[in-house]
Design brief:
Number of helices: 3
Helix content: 25-40%
Strand content: 25-35%
Distance between the termini: 31 Å
Structural class: alpha/beta
Order of helices and strands: EEHEHEHE
């Protein structure tokens, strides 16, 4: 059973993460994410986190892949306080722009 995932917008540099974003999700979507990042290389990426219920190192790795692939920091929108705390604790919060 799938408990989380990443919806990749084929028309623009936008992801919507949902549910539990863990190592299983990372493994399942990493190829599609990498392809999307290549196709939208010059566009700023926005990641909607409003539907995320859990995120671990696998989810952080997906976000960090976006940081490594884009010339500008990805914009994270609708991140819960739990996700923001995780980003701060792991020291990667400065790598993103936090949007509304």
């Amino acid at each position: 059973m799938i408990h989380g995932g990443v919806r990749i917008d084929p028309e623009r540099a936008h992801w919507t993460m949902w549910g539990e974003i863990d190592g299983a999700v990372q493994k399942r979507v990493e190829t599609q994410v990498a392809d999307h990042l290549r196709r939208t290389a010059g566009e700023p990426l926005t990641v909607d986190l409003g539907q995320v219920t859990f995120i671990d190192s696998g989810g952080l790795r997906l976000l960090y892949t976006a940081v490594e692939s884009k010339p500008t920091p990805p914009v994270l929108v609708d991140a819960s306080s739990r996700i923001l705390d995780l980003l701060r604790i792991t020291g990667v919060d400065r790598l993103f722009v936090l949007g509304d």
